[in-house]
Design brief:
The chain is built from 15 helices and 16 strands. By secondary structure, it is α/β, with parallel strands linked by helices. Strand 5, helix 8 and strand 6 form a beta-alpha-beta unit.
């Protein structure tokens, strides 16, 4: 076992590093479930640290519920008692809890307002097959080889040129990583950046699955309120200074779930604060092209000159969800660490998917389709808003994206409404799933992009009836 040495950045907290090492060894199964941990003297000798350091690490484990003490016997692993019918099942990673958003989206219903995805009928299905055929014609050996771990070079070159032209990003193909969707990008970032008890700043509310990913690596979340005008920058600065977060995960463009968009002025200031407090900004941008009137401001990455932004640009939501293509832009050393994590995760996003996306997304036909798609989604948003008027619900009209963030009438709880909705074959996302504090039970996210126009009318009327029954 390698000795543990204090970090140059945090020399006074060596016991935390020891605690992290113990947690990893528990997860690897080095000690049996509910088994005894080494004595303080033994572990101190093994790691080459003072016994007081190990004592503090064990105390930290005890406070977090990962260990308990038997009087005059020592410290024991506390994994919790397993049900009798599960004693033979494999051990589950101690940080992995649940994914309530996925649980709701898997419920088979007629009126699907929980999926922030496109209705498949809005995709360019008629000519997508032509690009699949073209990919095989141009790259006949595409199924006979793996893609480079970092992503297809031709795609990264085209993406770098596109982002430079669209947003004036100073970016090289070597600073891009192609991932299998934005969710994999988030997982890779969490895997490379986080250790147990690290602080992560997140919007309140925010994307529920992102919080689940960060928690699965043992992170503690600190909430930053987001408003129609953006952020309280004094709150952001205070949290960065006091909590010293590992990173700030934010979604400033057609924010999920609220639909808010942060101004260019605030974006510049956020990057300045990130540099001042040495806090990485993880910018998630899945809806950038889905605007209804004016394009949104450039990404935060545009204003970053010192490497304090990692930018995730996803195309799965509105180009071809089945291809699962996203790009991460970051500077060294972040991009290098991501590349290593990607190699361990899947050794590269499927090359065929990348080639099809390359031909499809950068075509004139696809760019024309995006213009039609924006109109179609704007129409669907208007249909939902009109159908929900007079129900006692309230919301801020978004300028783009796929969702409405809706406030319920007084006295109605999102959890109760969801239970009633599922009985009537209707789902949505309750606000508690989007809230790092799990308190927003008077809010719901309604996605207008997946249901067709008839389902939007009928589902909104059904929702209005459920609200009346609970009033």
């Amino acid at each position: 076992m390698s000795k543990i040495y204090p970090s140059a950045a945090r020399p006074a907290r060596l016991y935390e590093s020891v605690c992290d090492d113990i947690l990893k060894r528990i997860d690897r199964g080095e000690w049996s479930e509910r088994g005894k941990l080494p004595s303080i003297r033994e572990l101190a000798q093994e790691l080459g640290v003072h016994r007081l350091t190990v004592f503090k690490a064990y105390q930290l484990l005890k406070q977090s519920g990962k260990a308990y003490v038997k009087d005059k016997s020592g410290y024991y692993i506390n994994t919790g008692a397993l049900p009798s019918d599960q004693t033979a099942t494999p051990a589950i990673h101690s940080h992995i809890q649940q994914n309530p958003l996925s649980d709701i989206q898997r419920v088979p219903v007629v009126y699907q307002f929980s999926q922030a995805l496109l209705d498949p009928n809005l995709l360019p299905n008629q000519y997508l097959s032509a690009y699949v055929k073209q990919a095989f014609d141009l790259y006949p050996k595409v199924l006979g080889t793996y893609a480079p771990v970092q992503g297809d070079e031709e795609l990264r070159e085209a993406m770098a040129e596109y982002l430079a032209a669209e947003h004036h990003l100073a970016l090289t193909p070597g600073e891009l990583l192609i991932t299998s969707g934005a969710q994999q990008a988030l997982d890779l970032l969490a895997k490379t950046l986080l250790k147990p008890r690290d602080i992560v700043l997140v919007d309140r509310p925010t994307y529920g699955a992102a919080m689940d990913i960060f928690r699965s690596y043992g992170a503690q979340l600190a909430a930053v309120d987001i408003h129609p005008h953006g952020y309280d920058l004094e709150q952001v600065a205070r949290l960065m200074k006091e909590r010293k977060p590992r990173f700030f995960y934010l979604n400033p463009t057609f924010h999920n779930p609220t639909g808010y968009t942060v101004s260019a002025e605030q974006r510049k200031r956020l990057v300045e604060l990130a540099a001042e407090h040495r806090c990485l900004l993880v910018e998630d941008d899945p809806f950038h092209d889905i605007y209804f009137k004016q394009p949104p401001p450039p990404p935060l990455f545009t204003y970053d000159t010192e490497g304090y932004v990692a930018y995730i640009r996803s195309f799965s939501k509105y180009i071809a969800p089945g291809l699962r293509i996203a790009a991460v832009a970051a500077r060294p050393p972040v991009i290098g660490n991501l590349l290593t994590a990607k190699s361990l995760a899947d050794n590269g996003t499927p090359l065929l998917n990348q080639k099809i996306f390359l031909l499809l997304f950068f075509s004139d036909r696809m760019q024309r389709h995006l213009e039609k798609l924006r109109i179609a989604l704007h129409v669907r948003m208007n249909i939902m808003e009109e159908a929900l008027s007079g129900t006692g619900l309230s919301w801020s009209k978004p300028a783009g994206g796929l969702n409405l963030w809706v406030k319920l009438p007084d006295g109605i709880k999102a959890g109760t409404l969801l239970a009633k909705g599922i009985e009537q074959s209707l789902t949505f996302v309750p606000g508690t799933i989007c809230d790092p504090l799990t308190e927003l039970d008077d809010r719901i996210r309604l996605s207008y992009s997946y249901a067709n126009e008839i389902q939007l009318h009928e589902g909104a009327r059904l929702l209005a009836g459920l609200l009346r029954s609970l009033a």
